[in-house]
Design goal:
The protein has about 600 residues and is an alpha+beta fold. About 25% of the residues lie in helices and about 25% in strands. It starts with a helix and ends in a 27-residue tail after the last strand.
Length: about 600
């Protein structure tokens, strides 16, 4: 049995390292689940979810059963980098691959889409697809969702007293969703599905006008576009765009009816099962790709005496990637950066950069002033848990900045030979493995914050510079930066905004590129922001409380709630150093301008 376990582990390792690819991950996951190989299944599904934009075009995806497609596309961890419309397209492509046998599953495929993240523009596009046009049921569902998101008043047909037999039949029909997917309307805490005291109008027999009757009923979004239905800042839509002719009956004497029709769009009526299905689909939460807040630090070398009095070294002092484990409520080492210390000692000014499921280590100098440089670029694959040599740097570089945009990794500025501050920018394509030179920076810079935001690359020195990859050109923004603000050390893109932190300060600032003329102070962390990262809607600050026996602390700024919180603080001195000192401690005074130092931050 022990021998069998050893062989099984070896086989799993070989499959993960040699066989597991974008083309084989779905097949591998299915086989691993049948054989109860949990580790292999976890690795295969992790690859399939992260590489969804590529996996959805493979033969293995088109060969899936409807149950397998449903499980895959409904997974909360699906990496929809191009938005939820990509899920809709993937599902329709799967249907069209075997149209005759799969057309009946169209509604089930639609239930995989998170409509909360679908724009009204994409919804209008969906209505143009042949599979949608051929089904009145699906058309009504998408039109109902479109109106809800556009802020047009919606009511279900159960609300209306009507003499129309067809409408009665529709309102009493089964739900568009399976029984297991039904959701009580009253369970929704927002405006959808809540029974409220609003006027409604009954349909006349000719279906072309409304009579003036007020009562208590369940009316959706009858007053104004609400927060739930103004998602993605989608613009309001008109009835003309949907070609739905609805009017209020002429001669109506109801004052509320006249007021509604003069200020709002008319209420639209859909079968009750359609409204219920649309309500349910809009309640599905946004996807949440599982990401960990990670920073680079060091395990401190520390010796203690054991019971016999012998001194024992308990930590190696190697550089590590650390993460905050919310379940265990502690900062734990995730990965030892073993390739960093393969030289005579740990280099100064190297950079660790993440790109998807991979880490890259670039640059650094082993002995300052002795021209002993790290030219190797190392890649660590998180999925396979192995290091590999990637390429060599075309130029010596340390204390540079690194920014990832798509498949390209940009190395910006830094120090070169003879401690000369550089203005050069090199681009490395991680797919083609080719280096290319880009236009030089407007001025030499080192250790500056940079970020890929929308289709631009931003660099934050004493001025804000932005780069257009398609034109290979740099521009300088006239946005005002905070006075006496020491170099920005971290830039984070969130929605339309860029958030920034600086060295030796606790201030967090933000601005909207090409719109704001100055940066706005969001607030202050409790401790200086040396190790900061963004995950989802939270900005994490890993810091050390030097005044309290060097205890570690993790602070979070919740962007949505606009709150600073201390989520964890160690109860004793940890043998972890998160000051990132190897990146900064050996920068000489000559390399810093006197004006860079400041004791406080001022804002205009």
């Amino acid at each position: 049995m022990l021998h069998f376990d050893s062989v099984k582990k070896t086989c799993i390792h070989l499959i993960i390292s040699k066989w597991l690819t974008v083309d084989t991950c779905l097949q591998t996951a299915a086989t691993a689940m049948e054989l109860d190989l949990n580790i292999l299944y976890s690795k295969a599904m992790a690859l399939a979810l992260w590489e969804f934009p590529r996996v959805r075009n493979t033969d293995a995806f088109f060969a899936l059963t409807i149950d397998a497609v449903d499980v895959y596309l409904q997974n909360d961890g699906l990496n929809t980098s191009q938005g939820e419309f990509e899920v809709f397209e993937a599902g329709l492509n799967w249907l069209e691959d075997e149209m005759e046998s799969r057309a009946e599953h169209t509604m089930r495929i639609l239930q995989c889409v998170r409509f909360v993240d679908i724009t009204t523009f994409d919804l209008r596009t969906m209505l143009l697809y042949p599979l949608v046009r051929d089904s009145m049921e699906i058309q009504h569902l998408l039109q109902c969702i479109l109106m809800m998101k556009g802020g047009i008043p919606i009511a279900n047909s159960n609300t209306f007293a009507t003499q129309d037999d067809d409408l009665d039949t529709q309102s009493g029909s089964e739900s568009l969703l399976d029984n297991k997917d039904k959701l009580s309307l009253n369970s929704y805490s927002g405006c959808l599905g809540g029974v409220k005291s609003f006027p409604y109008f009954t349909m006349s027999q000719n279906k072309e006008s409304f009579s003036d009757k007020s009562s208590q009923g369940c009316v959706y979004c009858v007053t104004s576009p609400c927060r739930e239905h103004s998602m993605n800042n989608s613009p309001a839509i008109s009835l003309e765009e949907l070609n739905v002719p609805v009017t209020v009956s002429p001669g109506s004497t109801n004052s509320v009816a006249k007021d509604l029709t003069s200020t709002l769009l008319p209420i639209q009526v859909f079968p009750a099962n359609t409204v219920e299905a649309a309500n349910h689909l809009l309640q599905l939460p946004c996807r949440n790709v599982p990401l960990l807040p990670c920073v680079v630090g060091h395990m401190l070398e520390e010796t203690r005496q054991n019971e016999s009095g012998t001194k024992v070294s308990i930590k190696s002092g190697q550089p590590c990637v650390f993460t905050f484990d919310e379940k265990k409520q502690e900062v734990v080492p995730l990965l030892i950066l073993s390739k960093v210390t393969q030289g005579p000692l740990e280099p100064t000014g190297y950079k660790v950069t993440s790109k998807g499921q991979e880490l890259f280590v670039t640059g650094g100098e082993y002995l300052l002033g002795h021209s002993n440089w790290n030219r190797s670029v190392w890649r660590y694959n998180v999925l396979r848990e192995e290091w590999g040599f990637e390429t060599s740097l075309p130029f010596h570089r340390r204390h540079h900045s690194v920014c990832v945009m798509g498949d390209d990794m940009y190395l910006i500025g830094g120090f070169g030979r003879h401690r000369i501050i550089m203005d050069t920018v090199e681009k490395y394509n991680t797919v083609t493995k080719i280096w290319s030179s880009c236009s030089s920076l407007p001025s030499p810079l080192y250790d500056v914050a940079c970020i890929a935001h929308k289709e631009y690359l931003f660099v934050f020195g004493q001025q804000v510079h932005w780069y257009q990859p398609d034109q290979d050109s740099w521009n300088t923004s006239n946005i005002a930066t905070p006075k006496k603000f020491l170099n920005f050390n971290c830039a984070m893109s969130h929605g339309h905004c860029i958030y920034l932190t600086g060295l030796f300060t606790t201030v967090l600032v933000k601005f909207i590129p090409f719109q704001d003329t100055s940066m706005e102070s969001v607030g202050d962390f409790r401790f200086p922001t040396v190790n900061v990262c963004l995950v989802g809607d939270n900005i994490y600050n890993f810091s050390t409380d030097e005044e309290n026996d060097g205890r570690l602390m993790v602070e979070v700024y919740d962007i949505i709630r606009k709150e600073f919180l201390i989520v964890w603080q160690s109860q004793q001195r940890e043998i972890i150093d998160l000051s990132n000192s190897k990146h900064y401690e050996e920068i000489s005074a000559e390399e810093l301008d006197e004006d860079d130092y400041a004791s406080e931050v001022e804002f205009d």
